[in-house]
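User: tokens in, sequence out, please.
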């Protein structure tokens, strides 16, 4: 008799605690994937207009750059990599003499830290990350703000 009651209590405990345990798992997964940044969407129209004004003269409206002079954004390893740190630093601080896609470019990429806000830099980066077949993880303005305060090297 006692054994049956104990077993019932155990079954009840599993039924009650099961959902709680699942919830805790989900919270832990969110925290470790960096879900504190909201990156599900961005202002695509704004991103495209910023890209057209500030980037397309060198990288092209089609994201293909100009062979030997300006690197392509389409298919770029920096732009499609899940960790966007390098992408953010290049746009904030500019870049020169770093190989892009294994190619050394003689021209320089200008810095945009003084020209564009965190939100605009996030929009133009997200535009690059989701155009021309690119599928990079999107970034949020808070990530741009965080990179402004670290070393200037990309
Ligand atoms: C004056 C021309 C010019 C403009 C304007 C320009 N870039 Fe660049 N960009 C470059 C050059 C040149 C490089 C390669 C830098 C190097 O070799 O270190 C580069 C590199 C990059 C890279 C790294 C590519 C890779 O695969 O490593 C990204 C991302 C990028 N630019 C984004 C942008 C964005 C976003 C804008 C506009 C806000 C922009 N660029 C405007 C010339 C330009």
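Assistant: Sequence out:
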């Amino acid at each position: 008799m006692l054994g049956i009651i104990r077993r019932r209590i155990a079954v009840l405990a599993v039924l009650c605690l099961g959902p709680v345990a699942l919830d805790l798992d989900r919270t832990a997964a969110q925290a470790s994937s960096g879900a504190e940044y909201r990156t599900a969407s961005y202002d695509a129209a704004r991103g495209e207009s910023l890209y057209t004004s500030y980037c397309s003269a060198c990288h092209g409206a089609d994201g293909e750059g100009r062979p030997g002079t300006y690197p392509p954004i389409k298919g770029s390893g920096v732009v499609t990599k899940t960790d966007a740190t390098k992408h953010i630093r290049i746009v904030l601080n500019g870049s020169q003499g770093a190989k892009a896609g294994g190619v050394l470019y003689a021209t320089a990429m200008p810095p945009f830290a003084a020209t564009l806000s965190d939100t605009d830099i996030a929009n133009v980066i997200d535009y690059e990350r989701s155009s021309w077949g690119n599928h990079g993880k999107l970034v949020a303005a808070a990530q741009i703000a965080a990179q402004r305060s670290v070393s200037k090297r990309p």
